[in-house]
Amino acid sequence: MDQKKVGVFLKDLRREKNITQEQLAEAMSVSNRTVSRWETGSNMPDLDVIIELSDYYNVDLRELLDGERKSEKMNQDLKETVLKVADYSNDEKMKLMKKLHFFSWIGVVSFIIFIALEAMDLADSGITESIASFCAGISFGMLIIAVIYTSKYISKFRVFKKKIFQRKA
Known about the structure:
Elements: H1 3-16, H2 21-28, H3 32-40, H4 47-57, H5 61-66, H6 76-119, H7 126-149, H8 154-168
Helix pairs in contact: 1-3, 2-3, 6-7
């Protein structure tokens, strides 16, 4: 797929409809900058947004993905398949967000315990020092996990994790 070609096609479709980037952004519930990135070909819309754009502009989904008009209409089965793929993608994102939310709360609670022990001057000796250090470490670890989950490297991390666990099995 040629992103630049798709971007030019999206721009042409918007101009044919005689609307601004701002109007399209509002209709698609995205920012003006996002529409601009689509039209320059630097980013592609998510699958569910591509389907919305196809309906909005009344063009075949394949035309949108190819970046040019075709004469035949889109097969309904193809549209349903793409919708299923988009739903699957959204489900995967939701699973990741739930994990991130869980890890974040662990980090927050650990940090609160650490701060409480520090505030009561209990983090300087004995078992409470160990608990405070453990909580600080957990907080920092959860912060690192949050950074990984919100970065573009999470998919690479998941592939790496799969490889490691397959070797051990």
